[in-house]
Protein 1
Amino acid sequence: MEAAELKGRQESHITVVDLEMAYGSFVIQRDLNFSIGRGEIFVIMGGSGCGKSTLLKHLIGLMEPSRGRVFYGDVSFWEIESRDRDAIMRRSGILYQSGALWSSMTLEENVALPLMEYSDLRGSDIRDLVSLKLALVGLGGFEQFYPSEVSGGMRKRAALARAIALDPEILFFDEPSAGLDPVSARMLDDLILELRDSLGATVVVVTHELPSIFAIGDKAVFLDSDTKTMTALGNPHHLLKESSDRKVLKFLTRGEYDSKKTDGL
Amino acid sequence: MKSQGDYHRIRIHAGNVTHWDSTLLVFLERFRKFSREKHVQVDFEGLPEGADRLLKLASATSRKETGDREEELSLLNRIGHEALKWYRAAGEIIDFIGRATLAFVNLFRGRAQMRRSDLLGVIQECGVNALPIVSLISILVGLIFAFVGAVQLRMFGAQIFVADLVALAMAREMAAMMTGIIMAGRTGAAFAAQLGTMQVNEEIDAFRTFGISPMEFLVLPRMLALMLMMPFLYFYSLFLGILGGAIVGTWMLDLPWVQYSHQTQMAITLTDVSIGLVKSAIFGVLVALSGCLRGMQCGRSASAVGLATTSAVVTGIVWIIVADSIVTVITSMLGI
């Protein structure tokens, strides 16, 4: 049993075991158990205020769990030195909800800073690399703009360029399509798929956008704010067909499921 | 409703209602609740269709139990809570000072994640750019001291000692304190607002998850710049304060310029200037510390940034005054 568990942890990229999240004595979610495979696009979904973004914070080292463990491979993330945690996080890229570009720097400097801190590349190499990353997200030519001078969608894409600056093994997205129009949101979804395929990166997405969930999600976990735990885990398409949980179905059908049921009665 | 035993059912005809707003709904809802308590059934008839639907919608979704937000606490309980809050706040300040110190240690080991361009930017901001306001305030403070002294000293024909008064006051107290307070209002507030806004925008989180220490990258250059610039500002302020005194001395008291400047040179010693210099360096640290501390503690809303800024200025000024009194008491006990 132990050996099998260990083997499972080594094969998956992130494993969450009995995780409990709380603000002080107020528990948000408990008994979370799931694993994220390498190269998988994993979706954390659920209604507003169910703890999606909080779960993300636990995965990226911004909030310590009140109980339970998070494994990166077979390393228990919260039981190692913070310096080693930094080393793990250096191999990941994060796209924050608001983009979180450093407002006092140009887009070029934003993307270049991680490279300057953590690579031995020369200035001219870094500049070319930054241009490449910005071109990848469709922002070639905007190097000298400040975050406040570009639109919300462009800020998000620039933040994505920064997130992939160090060629991460794992990418985290916090509500990537929040505040974007449907077409831009779709473009971002395509970009996520493209990056997963080309970089071979594992992707963790926090979202409640149904089209995105079905378009990109290999596996999804549903967090329920009433029962304060996860109520579904699996491929979103399968969940739609097979889940027996009322709230999961209601969520995945945009509430249709519930009204159909009441119509039938 | 007094003789409720006689009524079992109330019927409300609203067929003639043509104009209505939400207050109608509130009234009907309140009436229905009241009747339910008295066990009287109420029927509404002929309500406008929209009102009827809104009424149904409001009663369809039940009130969620969200718990008491603000509990009523006894006086003793509240004192306890406040005390705990103070205790925690003190802990946070000590924690912050400790981490700032570690950042400085890293700086001296040459391993701090700080960009020179950031440091130079902050130096310009809290050094050169602060000169106009420091000039104005320093000259005016010198003028004021000279005026106050002149009125008294002229009665004894001792107007020349205005030079001593101004020089000593500026060197030992006012130059350091005024620049400290100006910097608390100007730069401390700016630090808190910048860091607070970055906190709101998740920019600080972004630094952290890139493994870049916000203490070293953001706080260190700000503290360093202010610590370096404050002594310079002190000298500048001292010079202009004495100049302000000299303006009053030569124009109002008709003292010859040479005599005034000679008297000033006689009045202040190196000790006085050193004391002021040490004070200004301490104030620089305190202002930077309060600004950065409040900025980093900032919550995640726009109003939190305002609170952080206010708190930075208040904390900065309080710390300056307290530190100044401590230093003054110590120097007078040592007799210097």
Protein 2
Amino acid sequence: MTFTPQRRRIDLRVLSMALILIAMWVFFCAQVGEFYFSGESIAKLSRDMATWTILAGGMTLVIVSGNIDLSVGSLLALVAASVAAMINSEYGLGWSATMAVPLGILIGGCLGFGQGVLTAYLRIPSFIVTLGGLFVFRGITQKVSAFDPRVPDSSWVVTLGFEYVPQTHAWIVGIAACIFAMAMFLYGRKRKQQAGIAVDPVHYFLVKLILLCLLILGFISRVNQYKGIPNQTVIMIAVLLVLYIISRRTSFGRHLYAIGGNVEAARLSGIKVEKHVVAAFTIMGLTAGVAGVVWMAQNQGSTKNAGEFYELYAIAAAVIGGTSLMGGRGTIFGTFLGGLVMATVIQGMDYTNLENWTQLVVRGAVLVIAVGIDIATKTPPDWLRAIFVRRSPRN
Amino acid sequence: MAEPVMSILEVRDITKDFPGIRALDGVSFDVREGEIHALVGENGAGKSTLIKILGGVYPANQYSGEILLNGHVVRFHSVRDAAKAGIALIHQEQMLVKHLTVAENIFLGDEPTRFGFVDWNGMINSARQLADEFHIDVDVRTELAHLGMAKQQIIEIVKALRKTSTILILDEPTSALAKHEAEQLFSILRNQKARGTAIVYISHRLEEVFGLADRITVLRDGKLAGSGPVSEWTRETLVKAMVGRELREVYPVTRSHTGAIALEVQHLSVEDSEIKGRKILEDISFSVCEGEVLGIAGLMGAGRTEILSTLFGKPPGIVCGGQICIDGNPVQMSSPEDAIKYGLAFIPEDRMNLGLVLDLSVVGNLSLVHLKQFCKFGFIDNIEEFQKCSGMFGRLGIRSHSMDMRVGSLSGGNQQKVVFGKWLLRKPKLLLLDEPTRGVDIGAKVEIHNIINDLKREGVAIIIVSSELPEVLEMSDRIIVLRRGRVAGEFPRSQATQEGIMELAA
């Protein structure tokens, strides 16, 4: 058989995830009515998913490396409480937000680093280390936020939780993103062609590009009918983009996949396994810090039970998005879709005024069903395979 | 043999399709009572598919054709059905639980009970009896993980035979075994044969097939390529039937000019990290020159793999003496990163667990070691990575449909070429090969030997460890023989013979 370099076309799992999302949107729209697709509803959906989807992004790296972090909900709370306590002038330190915010994120990074060291060098399983962290950080949070620290309206950090990117700016951002995407797509395509690598057919390429631009511009035109893009959404997308680049375009990211896939083979390939694991936990800590700041901003302060169960939301989003708990598999884009699925379920059920207990039941069911579908598409039935999956050769 | 011997198990016109592939195409096959029937063919020829059909792994509605047991048509819907009919399938990969004891493994899923509870004493006693019966020297209460590969393999067979299986199917049982261990296995198989068990035996090692089998059937590309009693076959006709062409020489021979000493090991000793004073390697000294292939021969457990992993910065215990010199300078190899920095490359014996990340794509695996080479400003340049790696495809003859395929879905030979490829993106100085052709079909084997010879010509120093003595003999310029962690002797190529080596090794 002669070899022609080529890349795969359709990712069946992303497709199935997108179909699940669309099905849910249609369902909820039928339940809720026109309001479901209004600018306000969409803006709030994208806003409310921010905190734990940020966590889910960092979680993806940790899970890909073959570990898990159960402490992130508590870590978020601890950062939120610390930042609030630093800013609060009545009972707290009364520092400016410009000082407190980076410090808070740094606390997150340091604690993540510490947990990474315990996991990688002392070889305590990450499940145990971070289960411990879950309790320890929550305990400290209770001490720090004993007086329920509030943050005054005058502090700029509050705008992160309440303000929007105004309409005109939103359009500029959206159009710039589209142009940037187009430029990157074309540049990549041209380089591939120059290198003699088979590229997608033109129509497929165009559909992909146009779909992406339509999604961006459609989103912006909708949320502009309300107040513009929520600041939390912007932060979430920025964090996810950075994590995406780390996971896909750096050797560090690639090495995490190798470590999670086969730690011994990674070691024998000269990868410094321990350092990578520590770095993954540090990044997780930093993202928990960012999420903590956002949480604090949108609640204008902190409470003892901030971010409770968020570690589980984050894990759920990552897993729904196709991240394997065994390590070695998972993408940031998938996690984003997983976060969107979770957010859709949570918001949709708020609209339907179901009692709280039913909401929990449905959330759990969605997690299991989504992962079930994912596993079913991993070994697709023959008729589905015939449509989408290219035949593999026998050697 | 009296001619009209009844076939105990027969398949007729089996055709099995996988999506897009016809794995078996009208194959008929049978095995008789008290017979060892060898099934040979290159990787992907359909051997595994055939025995999985026999063993009930593929249920009866997924293929066409029929299976006859003692002359009656049977339909297996599961492995359980096949097992009930007396067919035991021993897979290439072991199906034992490493952290259970030998006795527990033998009786797994079928534990003897008293009053509803596991009868531990009864179990251990009957396991002991079985061990005696099969002449295995083992304490049945040891955890399986503490035993060597050979013992584990034999215990798997004991487990299968305990349930009075009348048909035993073995898929490459010796691929992980050294010669004397394989002999141990063969004597068990011959005993079973004498008792009337029908045995289907798959192997890549042709000499085994000739020594053991009564009949040989060859599959090629899912079709029957020949079948007959062992007396009708010669090595040449067999190879020809397997590959469909004549291989002029199985071992290509290259002479090359050797250069300066690339690696010198002086008085290297490694001590077991758990048992104080037990030496895994003792006073090992040798050297390799640029453009030279040094073979390391020895029985399994003699320290062959351990030498390589110590050189590569992953000693199996504590290095307690000696010195490693690269280009005449003493160096510290405290981790694989160090070793890679000094230009070492290591192709481990167990490519599934040590060589490859099966979930990563072919490209991802190829670029794993030298990923930094493709980074610009800290970011991977995908296109350059892709191009360099596809260059490897041509150079090594890797056959894969796409670069983005999971490496786990390639055949054994192609996987092994990927392991080679990941070290060759930058020319290594010293290449350590541990069983480089294990579990690889004969065509890929020749290709891998050619790759090794090419590297040798380019001046790479090479150390090769192999359980197949002919491979060591033919590939190496010099051979050192290990016995129980010590160097027992050294031969130049011209004086090395199988007998001479075995005498020193045993």
